Structures are given as structure tokens and as C-alpha cells.
Amino acid sequence: MNVKEELYNECLAIVNERQANIQRNFSSIQEAMLSETKSSAGDKHETGRAMLQLEREKLGNQLAEIQKVKEILFKIDQTAQVFQGCLGSVVYTSQANYFISVSVGEIMVHNEKFYAIATNTPIGKLLLGKKVGDTITFRNQSFVIEKIV
């Protein structure tokens, strides 16, 4: 398996784990809402129910965001030969290595550290369209693109 495929699989595993955690929380809130019965302290019941409803909405929004992230991942062609920074490219620089995909943070593959970043992040925007040999300046530091896969 090549580096790009392994990075892709790691990103997908991280996103799937996040989705599973959100779904577990969503399910437990659903159960709590169903099990909460009207007590003699009616206002307390309504407040608790409203809080659960807000939490459920928040988790619903997080699930929708995770789905959008997965859709971005599914657009990546893991076998495509690329010669510039674009969605799905692995960019090696003199400072750090990047997988332009979705923002999941640091990933270790083949004993090398990579940062999985989205195209809309500040560093992602700088890398888009760049080629080997180009110099990028980010946070007052310059670095050179050494290789793109």
C-alpha cells in the first residue's frame, strides 16, 4: 500500500471513529429523552428536556458536518498522479509533510509524520496549485516543496 492510500485510510478511520462517537452520544440522548418522565417538579422536567433537545440538535449538526467531511474524502482518487498541490496530494516540504484532504491532524505513516489538512485551511490554501521547488511562507517561516505524490 502506498503512502497516499495509507493516509487516506487513516483519515477515513479517524472520521469514522468521530462519527461513531457522535452517534453513540446521540443515541444516549434519545434514550434519556424517552426515559425522562413527567415528575411533580414539572418545570425541572421541561428544563431537562429542553437541554437534551439542544444537545441532540448540536449532535445532529455534528453528524451533518462529519458526513460532509466523508464526502470530501470520497472525492479523493488515491491512485491519481498529481504534480501540484490539490485535494488528495501528499506534499513533502523542507519543514513538514502534508496530506491535502480533511483536517484530522497529525498522522504517522511509514515512520513519517504527516498533517492531514483541508483545502480551506490557511496552509492548505497556500499549498494549492504549488509545484515542486516552489517556496511557501507561512507564519513568518519559509519552506520549499520537495516532492508531491
Task: Summarize, please.
With 149 residues, this protein is of the alpha+beta class.
Polypeptide structure, described:
The structure is a single chain. The chain has 149 residues and is of the alpha+beta class. It folds into two domains: 3-74, Methane Monooxygenase Hydroxylase, Chain G, domain 1, CATH 1.20.58; 90-148, no CATH class. It contains three helices and six strands, in the order ααββββαββ. It has helices at residues 3-35, 42-74, 122-127; strands at 90-93, 97-101, 105-109, 112-118, 135-138, 141-148. A six-stranded mixed β-sheet has the order 3-4-2-1-6-5. The radius of gyration is 21 Å and the shape is elongated.
CATH class of the largest domain: Mainly Alpha
Major sheet strand order: 3-4-2-1-6-5
Helix content: 40-55%
Amino- and carboxy-terminal Cα gap? 14 Å
CATH topology of the largest domain: Methane Monooxygenase Hydroxylase, Chain G, domain 1
Strand percent estimate:
15-25%
Number of helices: 3
From N to C, what is the helix and strand string?
HHEEEEHEE
Radius of gyration over alpha carbons? 21 Å
Domains (count): 2
What would you call the structural class?
Answer: alpha+beta
Backbone shape:
elongated
Total strand segments: 6
- Label the CATH architecture of the largest domain: Up-down Bundle
Largest sheet, in brief, is: 6 strands, mixed
Q: pLDDT average, as an integer?
A: 92
